[in-house]
Amino acid sequence: MQASPGVVTFLFTDIEGSTRLWEAEPERMRPALARHDAIAKAAMDRHRGVVVKMSGDGLHAAFNDPLDAVNAALELQHALADPEATGGIALRVRCGLHAGVDERRDNDFFGGAVNRAARITGAAHGGQVLLSQAVAALIRDRLPAGVALRDLGSVRLRDLSSPEQVFQVVHPRLRADFPALRSLEATPNNLPRQLTSFIGRERELAEVKNLLATTRLLTLHGVGGIGKTRLSLQVAADVMDDYPDGEWLVELAPIADPQLVAQAVASVLGVKEEAGHPVTEALERYVKDRQLLIILDNCEHVVHACAELAQQLLQSGPRLKVLASSREHLHAAGETTYPVPALAVPDPSTTIAPNALTQYESVRLLVDRAVAAQPAFQVTEQNALSISKICRRLDGIPLAIELAAARVRAMSVDNIAARLNDRFNLLTAGARTALPRQQTLRALIDWSYDLLTEKERILFRRLAVFAGGWTLAAAEAVLSAGDVDEAMVLELLVGLVDKSLVMVEAEGTRYRLLETVREYAQERLEESGEEAGVRKRHLEFYLALAEKAAPGLSGPEQASWLKQLDGDRENILAAHAWCSRTSHNAESGYRLVHAIKLYWFTRGLLDLGHRVTVEALSPPSIQPRSLARCKALWVAGQICSYTGRYEEAQRHLYESLEIARYHGDRRMIAAVQNYLALAALGQGDRAAARIHCEEALELARELGNKREIAVASNALAQLNRLDGKLDGAEPLYEQVVVLARELHDREFEAIGILGLAMVAIGRGFAQRAHELLCEVLTIAYETGSKTAGQSALEVSAGLAALQKQWERSARLFGAAEAQTLRTGIRRDPADEAFLQPLIANARNALGESRFTPAEASGRTLAFEQAITEVRAWQLSSYDRPLSGDQS
Question: What is the C-alpha to C-alpha distance for residues 12 and 14, in angstroms, rounded to an integer?
Fold first, then answer.
């Protein structure tokens, strides 16, 4: 199968590890590289290839016949297999081939096919020849004798667009087996797959990569829509081999509160805050020994917070680098800045032939996106002038050009050019903004808005209420009112997607607005006078979502609910913020923090949960004595108790108790008393704690409420165990287990069994403790409960110490401490009093020199690894006598 006319096969090569070789042996590398160049050029010439350019330690060649390209690559590899050919230095060359449409200017090629060939080369290892699916299809039935193709599967290349089916050329004289390809999947990252090609920017890519190699904080700055984000992502993809611990994109556009910047970074990195400590401390520990790249995207509205955080993390992590994008500099110590320029535009003073227009990046971008919108589109003598005008009048701003290109579906480029001229004049007269480029971008969005139907305009401006994206169900619930009914929302939303005003996220289930577009929509929403109504529906939707999720956050559907709430966390915070701004929504705010409580606990976001809950409680000048406020205060008391804010917890809980008594809600009275006991215990007041426990239990028994009886029984059992009254604690724990089983609450069943295990350890009954912990670990394993698992690790560490298995005790203690940092949940005073003496015994027995490394090894375990390990130990100890067992 021959290539079609106009199809060219591109071959790229480069030398693996050339930088290291130059640093080690610069004098020998000079003649070696000269010999390499001569061998490479000769191979290209012999197989009818044209060397387009030599760049650094590689070349770019073009072939009319793809088989010639393959043969040239094979000859090059064979020649370089002998180190003597290059003066005794082994040069391991990697080759990549792809076939595509012939797009050239002067003696150079450009376009997607060239870029893809370069990306395929970047995925290869030294000595390896890789082909794209296109090249493989063209030569498969013409392979020379001894040559075969090995299908390496679909690979996500570092152009961030669609994956490529890659094939390796196999030959008896070539190495056959190589490590996994250098794809995006090979390094931990969250770089999003892009749905469109990356056009041009070769010079900017090279300059930014060079700067990033010499600085640790690099900020790409420029006007909105200039392409800062896309450039930073492409740079990150290109340099991924430099960051073995990962590259992580933190999108800050949805973050309105500077206080949440550090939390956003922690969320992306999977770092959990430690109760009572700022999340920055956990981040500093995380980056300390890691070689990674953090990409802070859209910093301008939280620029000071970004600067402070970047400086803190860079000081803590010597191998960390930060790549930021912002409309202004961060002005942080050590910062290097790079102004992202607009795309090159045609010179208005020069007449340019249509076939030469594509030498300008802005025109190539416009044409590429226009063809995607209208496949028949092409540059002609008739439309060349209008194309030039569009690119110039939009100042070469990529976002503006892409929005213009999307209109090719319905308008000629002549009409687009005329419309842009009218709109720019109107906005200049209105002086909507100070900066010319802001005027241009705003003019473009104004023009796009004017092209919408009236119903599309209504939907578009209402979309401003969403933060961090939304689902179709959310759009239908929040945006439908008045002239837009629910049945219209999908069609209108699809229309806005088609017009490039709404973006579809990669998985296709969520939508979002670009930051600049959302700001524009917000202005239009404020002008319309309907903002309060839309935000009310937004609040109602996310309140209902949170209340629907609440019972599922502790059951078998926990994982799916957590994922959904992760996606909508910014919307929940936006709904909370609206409640805080409007006193008549205070009741909704109370309900929201009550419903979302378990999310903060499960995700280890207790400081954020504390702030949100306290804010929800504070706005009204006259604070109502409603049951909703009573429950919100109860939530605040719980969070404060679990994070060690005992005095504050008492304030919230006493007010909650007062309201519960005002309404005569005896169940809430019992519930509040339980946490008052914990807060009192944290303050060291055991007498008060016992009074609260006993009152809660008495009231719960009067009510016959099994759940509250179980909660109160557990609280009193904890206090008895703390006082050394094991005979009083044991029957209470047994009652907890019985009630939990009747309620089918396996999480609370685990809590009761854990109490019994601690009683057994307190009495020296190791075999009994093993049996009980096996039950708890089975529950944790089957339900996925991290709370039960964390407690099981702690008690198991104590059991190991009882049996004088000192290193195991230290390791399990380290695993438990790591989980405490992830969840933010601290041990209560009774559990702390149980564990610390046992761990102190292990520490004394081992000495710091042995205890510390054993504990550190436990801290490195992921939660699932730790649970698997301790479960295997408990099961192996279940049925045989244990040394030191007194049972």
Answer: 7
The token duo for 253 is 């556009």
Q: What is the mean pLDDT of the chain?
A: 86
Q: Which amino acid, residue 545? A: L
- pTM comes to 0.64
Provide φ and ψ at 852, rounded to 5°. Answer: -60, -50
Whether the per-residue pLDDT at 745 is higher than 80: the answer is no
**What gap in Å lies between CA 865 and CA 629, rounded to an integer?**
41
**Residue 6 pLDDT:** 67
CA distances (Å), 424 to each of 245, 391, 393, 420, 461, in order? 47, 14, 8, 6, 21
Distance in angstroms (rounded) separating the CA atoms of residues 640 and 600:
12
How far is residue 646 CA from its own chain's centroid? 34
Residue-level pLDDT at 500:
66
CB neighbours of residue 144 within 10 Å? 11
pLDDT for residue 789 is more than 90:
no
C-alpha span between 417 and 390 (Å, rounded): 5
Distance CA 883, CA 765 (A): 11
Q: What is the Cα 71 distance to its own chain's centre?
A: 44
Report yes or no: 824 and 605 within 8 Å, Cβ to Cβ: yes
* pLDDT at 425 exceeding the cut of 60: no
**Range in 399-408, 628-637, 725-734, 867-876 the model is least confident about:** 399-408
Provide φ and ψ at 7, rounded to 5°.
-100, 130
Compute φ and ψ for 876, nearest 5 degrees: -70, -20
Angle at 462 between CA 459 and CA 468, to 5 degrees: 110
Give the residue from 20, 95, 14, 100 showing the smallest Cα distance to 56.
Answer: 14
Q: Are strands 321-326 and 217-221 parallel, antiparallel or unpaired?
A: parallel
Residue 490: per-residue pLDDT = 93
Contact 191, 237 (CB under 8 A): yes
CA distances from 739 to 286, 696, 711, 713, 727 (A): 42, 16, 10, 10, 19
| Cβ atoms 267, 220 nearer than 8 A | no
Angle subtended at Cα 814 by Cα 640 and Cα 563, rounded to the nearest 5 degrees: 55
- What one-character DSSP code corresponds to residue 218? E
CB 76 within 8 A of CB 11: no
CA distance 688 to 685: 6
Which tokens go with 413? 């480029």
Q: Is the pLDDT of residue 25 over 70?
A: yes
What pLDDT, on the 0 to 100 scale, is given for residue 440? 44
Specify the pLDDT at position 13.
Answer: 94
The span from the CA of 446 to the CA of 517, in Å, is: 10
Is residue 421's pLDDT more than 60?
no
Burial (CB count within 10 angstroms: exposed 0-12, middle 13-18, buried 19+), residue 414: middle
Contacts within 8 Å (CB) and 24+ apart, 530-533: 530/462, 530/482, 531/465, 532/582, 533/481
Using an 8 Å Cβ cutoff, are 537 and 578 in contact?
no
Residues 6+ apart with CB under 8 A from 580: 589, 615, 616, 618, 619
Q: How many residues belong to the chain?
A: 887
Percent helix, percent strand, percent coil in the chain, to nearest 5:
65, 10, 30
Q: What does the DSSP 8-state code read for residue 605?
A: -
Helix (H, G, I), strand (E, B) or coil at 54: strand
Bigger pLDDT: 682 vs 217:
217
- Give the closest residue to 238 by CA, choosing from 204, 205, 215, 195: 205
What are the Cα distances from residue 684, in Å, to 153, 403, 758?
63, 64, 21
pLDDT over 70 at 181, yes or no: yes
First-residue to last-residue Cα distance in the chain? 81
Give the three-state DSSP class for 561: helix
pLDDT at res. 879: 55
* Most confident of the following: 425-429, 621-625, 817-821: 817-821
In whole angstroms, what is the distance from residue 316 CA to residue 308 CA?
13
| CB 326 within 8 Å of CB 298 | yes
Check if the beta carbon of residue 569 is closer than 8 Å to that of residue 542: no
